[in-house]
Amino acid sequence: MRLVLFEPDIPQNTGTLMRLAAGLGVALDLIEPCGFLLDDRRLRRAGMDYLDHLDWTRHSSWAAYRATPQTGRLVLLTTRAAIPYTGFRFAPGDRILVGRESAGVPDEVHDAADARLVIPMVPPARSLNVAISAAMVLGEALRQTAAQEMRQAAGQETP
Fold this sequence. Notes:
By secondary structure, the chain is of the alpha/beta class. The protein has 5 helices and 7 strands; from the N terminus they run βαβαβαβββαβα.
């Protein structure tokens, strides 16, 4: 499983997401350009010393990311989706993609996703912070895939 950040705007959120990925042992892809310098002190402060343990890859653009061999499904978190993340069946190779805090992802990226998921919100709320959203969905994805792996290890079929 991988966490993919598309052109993040806010260094504190990016640092938090990097810390989340490092802490959960999930690889991270960062698609540039970012709205800040990657040596920003706010990013380092949010990521703390966890950044030293992060398995991550920088991609200079969406085109560069797409040109890199990828496995698994690209699963986009978006307010424009109809499928709630709690009703989706995750797989170990999934790549969970979050967009820019200010604008999400462009249509080209939206259309490239294999699945589009939403976090259901109570009106008038529209969205959550990108780091909170990623943590919720990544937690559910890891819960599901750990259960699948345990069943497979025990010789049981995955329902």
